[in-house]
Amino acid sequence: MSQPLADGVGVARAEHFESIAQQRAAATLGIWAWLITELLLFSALFLVALITRIQHPEATVAAAKHLKFWIGATNTVVLICSSLTMSMAIEFSRMGWQRAMVRAMLATAALGGLFLVLKGYEYYADWDEHMMPFLSSRPFALAETPAARLFVNLYYVATLLHALHLFTGIALLLGMTWMAAKAGFLARHQNWIEIYGLYWHFIDLVWILAFPILYVVNR
Amino acid sequence: MRNPLAALRADDRAQLRKRLRTPVLTFLALLALLAVNVTLGATLPFAQVWIVELGVVAVMVALILLVSMEVIHEPPLIRLFSGLGFFWVAILFGMTLTDYLAR
Q: The Heme-copper oxidase subunit III family profile domain covers which part of the protein (chain A) (predicted)?
C-alpha cells in the first residue's frame, strides 16, 4: 500500500489474524499466489503462439493479417483507461471518498463492457471473413495454408479465455460496487478494493501482452 | 452540468492532485508506449522491428507491475512472490525455446 488511509477507513480484523497488518498482507499474498497461476496459464498460450510463428512463419503472418489490428489497439486503449479508473477507485477508497470510489468502479466496469462489445464485433467480422476454422459450416478462408488454422485456433483460445476473465471481473466488480456503496463499507473492508484492483490490473497486463504477441509482431 | 471539482475545498483538491498524480502519469506513459508499438506495427519500418516492439511491451508490463499493482511498495515476501511468477515464466520460455531454436 503506497498511500496512507484516511480517518475512519480500514479493515475489521478477523479473529484468526493477530493484527490488521497481518490480515492485509495475507490477503495480498493470497491474490498474488492466484495471479501467478493465471500468469503461467496465459504464458503457456503465448509461448505456443511464439512456437507457431517459429515453426510456420508464412502461415502465421497470413493468419495474423486477418486480425483486426485497429480494434485490438483501440481495446488496449480502453483497458489502459480502465486501469486508470481502477487506480482512482483504490485511491478514493483510501481517502474515504466513497461516492467517488463507487463512480470510479462503475466507470471501470463500463470500460470493461466496452472492451467486450468491441471484441464481440471483432469476432463477428472474423466470422464474416470465414476466419473461424472450427466452424464446419463456414469454409476457412486460409484453407490452402493448413498451419494458419493452428494460429487462428490459438488466437480464439487466448482471447476467449481473456474475455472470460474480463466478464467474470466485471460481474465481481459490479457485485462489489453494490456492497461498497453501503454505509460503513470503507471502515471494514477497504482492502477488498485494493485486492480486486490487483485482479483488474492483471487482466489489463495480460491484454498488454496478448495484443503485441498476437496482433503486432506477426504483421 | 455542474463541475464536481468546484465543490471541493482547496486542501481536498491538493490531496486529490497528490493522490492521483502517479496513476495519471502511469496512464499517460502506458498510452505513449502503446502509441509507439501501434506506430511500429502499422508502419513496419525495418525487418527486426519485433525486437523493439517486445522491448516496449516489457517496459509496459514493468510499469503495470511496479506502479499500478504497487509491487514496489509491497513487503519483501509479496515482492518475491510476484517476481517468482515471472521467474517460472522465464524457465518455461527458456527451456522450450532452447529446444525449438536449436533444431
A: 29-219
**pLDDT given at position B47:** 87
Domain boundaries, chain A: 43-216
Per residue in A77-111, pLDDT (tens digit) is 999 999 999 999 999 999 999 999 999 999 999 99
| ipTM of the prediction | 0.93
CA angle A9, B79, B63 (to 5 degrees): 85
Q: How far apart are CA B53 and CA A47, in angstroms?
A: 16
Backbone angles phi, psi at A65, to 5 degrees: -65, -20
Give the domain ranges of chain B.
Answer: 1-69, 74-103
- Name the residue of chain B whose CA is nearest to A43's CA: B89
CATH code for the structural domain at A43-216: 1.20.120.80
Question: Is the pTM of the predicted complex or chain greater than 0.90?
Answer: yes
> What's chain A look like in SS3?
CCCCCCCCCCECCCCCCCCHHHHHHHHHHHHHHHHHHHHHHHHHHHHHHHHHHHHCHHHHHHHHCCCCHHHHHHHHHHHHHHHHHHHHHHHHHHHCCHHHHHHHHHHHHHHHHHHHHHHHHHHHHHHHCCCCCCCCCCCCCCCCCCHHHHHHHHHHHHHHHHHHHHHHHHHHHHHHHHHHCCCCHHHHHHHHHHHHHHHHHHHHHHHHHHHHHHHHCCC
Is the CB of A54 less than 8 angstroms away from the CB of B30?
no
Q: Which residue of B has its CA nearest to A197?
A: B69
Determine, for residues B81 and A2 on separate chains, whether the beta-carbon distance falls below 8 Å: no
